[in-house]
Amino acid sequence: MSSHDSIGAVPPKMGFLERLSERFNPILVKEVRQALRGNYFRWTFWLTVSGGTVAAIGHIALAGADRSNGQQFFMLMFTCLAIAALGLVPFFAFIAMGNEWDENTYDLLCLSDLKPRHIIAGKVYSSGIQTLLYFSAFGPFLIFAFLLQGVDLGVVAFLLLLTLMLSVILSTLAVMLSTTTTKRFARMFFQAAIAAGLSIVISVLISIAGEMIRSPQTIYEPEFALGMTLVSSIVIWIAAFAFVQAIGRLAHPEENSSTPARTIALIGVPVAVAGMAATCLSAHGMFGSNRGDLATIFFMFAGSVLFMVSIGFAGEAERLGRRVRMTIPTKRWAAFLVTPMLPGGARGLAFFLMTSFLLAGSLTATRFIFGDRLSDLLDSSTLGMLVAIAYGFTYLTLPRPLFRVSKKVTPAARRMLIVVLFAGGVFLPAIITALLGGSPMGAFEHFGNPPWVLYEIMNSGFPSGAVETILGFVAIGILISARAIWRSYSEVMHFSAVARDRARATSSGVTANVDATE
Amino acid sequence: MSAILEVRGISRSFGELKAVDEVSFSIEAGSIVGFIGPNGAGKTTTMRICATLDLPDDGDVFVNGHSVIEDARTARRAMGFMPDSYGAYSNTTVSEYLDFYARAYGLRGRQRQSTVAEVIDFTALTASVGKEMGSLSKGMRQRLCLAKTMLHDPELFILDEPAAGLDPRARVELRELLKALTEAGKGVLISSHILTELSEMCDAVVVIEDGKIRAHGTVDDIVQGIVQHISIFVRTLGEAVATERKILEVPGVLGTRQIRGGVVVDFERGDEGIAHLLKVLVESGMKPVEFATERMDLEDVFMSVTEGIVQ
Questions:
Q1: Nearest alpha-carbon partner for B26 in B18, B35, B38
Q2: ipTM for the complex?
Q3: Which of B 157-216 lie inside 8 A of A, CB atoms?
């Protein structure tokens, strides 16, 4: 066994499928083999297809073949397909990832050459293949529904594309959720939540499909295309973020799993800006309608998402891992620029500030571009964004003194502290006011509740005392975090200098004795 | 010979519990090192750190010169790890399992097929290639895992309790497999509770307890380190009491005790002294019929260096 080159056995000739499988992800090959050999896929596949066939035959026998029956028949088949592609496939993607922990096979898997991204991609590809198998099984029925008439081909194509995309995205989210815990009990809880969530998605999609089949002209309207593009962008962004999160959770603790997630979060900025620009164009009359309010909603949504993902970044351990230190650029300016993208809680705050100011800057730029008609709206939006940034920064920063209480405050606990403090900031004054006999609705009208403050700013300007309070919050936030942010930059610059020294020593031919781990 | 595994002062805590406390040792290519200690001593944690599956709080481990912290991927390529417990993929045959891992290790085409065939042959799994993993006996599954560990031709094997649950024949076969590996120049770190078995196959042992290394080296070296005297069993044709009295007059005797009709003599180290003791017995007409050095085996070493501390 000294080398695999010295082999006596002559391997058999490889078949076509075997040669084809060489090009695929090993996880995909394994999962497909398991699925084809196992009972689950065979049973669910044949049960779903048989159910669809019986329903189709029954329907035709009872109702005949007229125009409205084409629609009914399509909906019947589409419901079966949606249950399979959006219910069974993502649910079992969750199970398949969880099996790696339950069956105690994950350790051996991650010792191989497969990187976490291969493992996650393999699971998602496998779900995609299963979805395609369902599509191929239901394809003839759907064509038959079209032949029965009453069904628009464009709608059929759109719904199938949407179902395929949703299936892959939901499978990615399911796999990501499965990587969040190795505890069987927690995963049982997730299973129930996923089953409920998928049921809702299936119901909504079937309702949308029904509506589209009845009114097929909807999908040919420009605003529908715009809306779908925006929604697709958001959903694809969420799936991409889920994908890198899942990879990060499988990665070695010394690996840099934060930068890919931050990069995807940063990509969200141009997506949001593009969405904003598109809605502004729409509002400006390009599509003959006014949807300027969508721009604000889009930005507020982007800001909220940014705050949520920043909770994850702000909760990270402060010190750079040993492996991350070795990847820091040698050039000072490059190291300075990449600092917000590197792991670390304080660098997470820097990331939040950088990204949210990019968003706010884009909003202000939009105001200049689309000028007069949207100026009032965007004036308040810009202010709203700045206030939202202030609140976001405050709530991300305030729990930081608690992080230092004990080494036991893990990243997960830090994130939980931020969430608890945010919830406390919104709900506690309201609860106290309600207990003291205040009005239930009025109880939420306080400066700890950003949605209320933002609503007021958008509609009637700053409430009395809001500016002072918000500036006070920001001042406290700066006091708490300025030193940590400074240190986080210093750490990166230090290791950049170490990398420079090492590079110099190497280029001058001197044996480097620079310790990057100091 | 060069160190294929070098553990440098690693520590690992789980909350208040210090599972591994500044553990250091090394393994050279072509040698088998036994890793022994009571339950909860820190063996599995140390092995998982060596296998890049866990991270030390302090210290580092180098596999073939590659740090498991800074260069885990290369370290993994040089090492094969067999955990104490691992699962089986459902609906997967032995050949499919090995084929999957061969793909996962980047082997392609004919090379993958021939490598799988070779490890199947080496681990004598030929009769089981078509069987599903779930139907394999414990011994066959251990072989399968070892076969999987060999696929990428690592320089170092880290085997956590590979003999647990195996019947005597399977144990002997496993021992033969490991011998074959070391003859091919591989290094092996193996943990086991079956000390007699380890003593037969290991070139050295590392004894760990309470997260700390208690002893490290060959069994003889450890004995020399922990025992400052040697014990000699003497039985003569005469009375044991008289024999004992005579022995106590010999210089270098540290103590005696009567056992099995003879006398166990605790004696200062040194062959000259032992020869002199024998000479005295013969010259004094004691007529010795048994005169044997009592050697400590691995179990004695283990009992001597550990204190029965369980974390």
A1: B35
A2: 0.76
A3: 180-181, 184-186
Question: Would the CB atoms of A113 and B105 count as touching at under 8 Å?
Answer: yes
Q: Is B134 touching A (CB cutoff 8 A)?
A: no
> H helices within A148-221, ranges in order?
153-179, 184-214
Q: How many CA atoms lie within 13 A of A222 on its CB side?
A: 12
CA B279 centroid distance within chain: 39
Residue A290 has pLDDT above 50, yes or no: no
A380-402 per-position pLDDT tens digit:
667 777 888 899 999 999 888 88
Q: Do domains B3-223 and B228-295 have the same CATH topology?
A: no
Q: Which residue would you say has higher pLDDT here, A463 or A85?
A: A85
What is the dihedral sign for C-alpha A86, A88, A94, A96? negative
Of B80, B258, B36, B50, the C-alpha closest to B186 is B80
- pLDDT above 70 (res A67): no
DSSP state of B287: -
Give residue for tokens 């729409």. A282
For residue B307, the model assigns a pLDDT of 67
pLDDT digits (tens, 9 = 90+) for A120-163: 999 999 999 989 988 888 888 887 777 777 788 888 888 999 99
Q: Is 90 exceeded by the pLDDT of residue B217?
A: no
Indicate the residue type of A473: F
Q: Is B133 helix (H, G, I), strand (E, B) or coil?
A: helix
Topology of domain B3-223 in CATH is Rossmann fold (3.40.50)
Asked whether the predicted pLDDT for residue A315 surpasses 70, the reply is: yes
Short-list A293, A295, A261, CA closest to A276: A295
For chain A, the average pLDDT equals 81
pLDDT higher at B255 or A479: A479
Closest to B158 measured CA to CA, from B130, B181, B200, B191 = B191
pTM for the whole thing?
0.79
Rg of chain A in Å (alpha carbons): 27
Backbone angles phi, psi at A55, to 5 degrees: -65, -40
- Residue B82: what are its φ and ψ, rounded to 5°? -120, 105
Among the partner-chain residues A9, A111, A517, the one whose CB lies closest to the CB of B76 is A111
Of B70, B153, B181, the CB nearest to A4: B153
What local confidence, expressed as pLDDT, does residue A287 receive? 46
> Does residue A11 belong to the interface with chain B, where contact is any CB pair within 8 Å?
yes
- Domain B228-295 in CATH 3.30.70.980: yes
Of A8, A99, A112, the CB nearest to B104: A112
Say how far apart CA A57 and CA A62 lie, in whole Å: 9
pLDDT value of position A12: 59
Highest mean pLDDT pick, A67-81, B16-30, B170-184:
B16-30
**Inter-chain Cβ pairs, chain A and chain B, closer than 8 A:** 116
Say how far apart CA A25 and CA A128 lie, in whole Å.
13
b/e per residue, B233-253, with b = 16+ CB within 10 A? ebbbeeebeebbebbeebebb
Residue of A nearest to B48 (CA): A107
Of A175, A184, A506, A37, the closest CA to residue B97 belongs to A37
* Mean pLDDT computed over A11-16: 63
Angular region, B287: left φ>0, alpha ψ -120 to 50, beta rest: left
Domain-by-domain residue ranges, chain B?
3-223, 228-295
How much is the pLDDT for B231?
A: 81
CA distance B180 to A1: 8
In whole angstroms, give the CA distance from residue B291 to residue B262: 10
Pairing of strands B32-36, B17-28: unpaired
Q: A280 pLDDT band (50/70/90 cuts)? A: low
B21 and B11 in contact (C-beta within 8 Å)?
A: yes
pLDDT at A436 over 70: yes
Residue at B267: amino acid letter: F
Question: Dihedral of CA A232/A237/A243/A246: which sign?
Answer: negative
A507 by DSSP, 3-state: which?
A: helix
